[in-house]
């Protein structure tokens, strides 16, 4: 197996993310409870405090994004086990960015106050560029793609393909919100680029661990 070490800039990003998470945890009261019973009537609350039915399109997008993050978390665990340090670090950073995506989704541009919108603003320029840089980095060591690749190449690679498919669904769930002016279209662009990254990372994981990708064959 080949170990790809995280870059100094990636290690800095991860340290900053962990500090932010620890600060958030300290804000929680010792009396904090997981259950609130406020959703028992079939509604849920946005970042703005507004309550909407759980069938609202906003919660479809939030749910898909949360599901995606869970799949990426599993892929990261496989990457750690395989000593794919660069991919594991990238995935950890992405998981925090998906929380930022969730905050943007839960703060509708067409109804939230300006102060909430500013607080939940998603830095798409920096984050999308980061994904593109990682795609270019991993692509540089991969053989040209001449056939469709099936989800394969070891546990980490296959799980990254699962995450890629869920990411596509999350992107589709976000687009109706973009169409009605509830979310910045750049958030959807980030999700589009994220699915490209997950595909590339899957191929990189297969190559780095010496696993064979299964190629689609026509009958």
Helix and strand run: HEEHHHHHH
Kindly estimate the percentage of residues that lie in beta strands according to DSSP.
under 5%
Gyration radius, rounded: 19 Å
Supply the number of helical segments. Answer: 7
Low-confidence stretches: none
Helix fraction, binned, reads 55-70%
Number of strands: 2
Average pLDDT score: 87
Q: Report on the biggest sheet.
A: 2 strands, antiparallel
Strand order of the largest sheet: 1-2
Q: Termini distance?
A: 33 Å
Structural class: mainly alpha
The gross shape turns out to be: globular
Describe this structure in words.
The protein is built from seven helices and two strands, in the order αββαααααα. The chain has 219 residues and is an all-alpha fold. Helix 1 (8-27) packs across helix 3. It is globular and about 50 Å long.
Task: Please give the structural blueprint.
Layout: H1 8-27, E1 43-45, E2 51-53, H2 57-81, H3 85-105, H4 114-119, H5 124-139, H6 155-179, H7 185-208
Antiparallel strand pairs: 1-2
Helix pairs in contact: 1-3, 2-3, 2-6, 5-7, 6-7
């Amino acid at each position: 197996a080949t170990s790809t070490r995280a870059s100094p800039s990636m290690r800095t990003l991860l340290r900053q993310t962990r500090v932010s998470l620890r600060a958030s945890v300290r804000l929680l009261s010792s009396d904090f409870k997981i259950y609130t019973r406020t959703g028992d009537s079939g509604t849920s609350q946005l970042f703005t405090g507004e309550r909407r039915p759980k069938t609202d399109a906003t919660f479809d997008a939030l749910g898909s994004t949360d599901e995606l993050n869970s799949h990426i978390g599993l892929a990261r665990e496989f990457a750690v086990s395989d000593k794919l340090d660069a991919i594991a670090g990238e995935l950890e950073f992405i998981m925090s960015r998906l929380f930022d995506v969730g905050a943007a989704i839960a703060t509708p541009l067409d109804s939230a106050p300006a102060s909430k919108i500013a607080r939940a603003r998603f830095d798409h320029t920096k984050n999308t560029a980061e994904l593109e840089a990682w795609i270019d980095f991993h692509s540089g060591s991969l053989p040209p793609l001449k056939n469709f690749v099936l989800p394969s190449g070891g546990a980490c690679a296959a799980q990254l393909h699962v995450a890629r498919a869920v990411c596509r669904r999350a992107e589709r769930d976000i687009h109706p919100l973009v169409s009605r002016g509830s979310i910045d279209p750049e958030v959807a662009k980030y999700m589009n680029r994220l699915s490209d990254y997950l595909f590339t990372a899957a191929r990189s994981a297969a190559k780095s661990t010496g696993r064979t990708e299964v190629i689609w064959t026509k009958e």
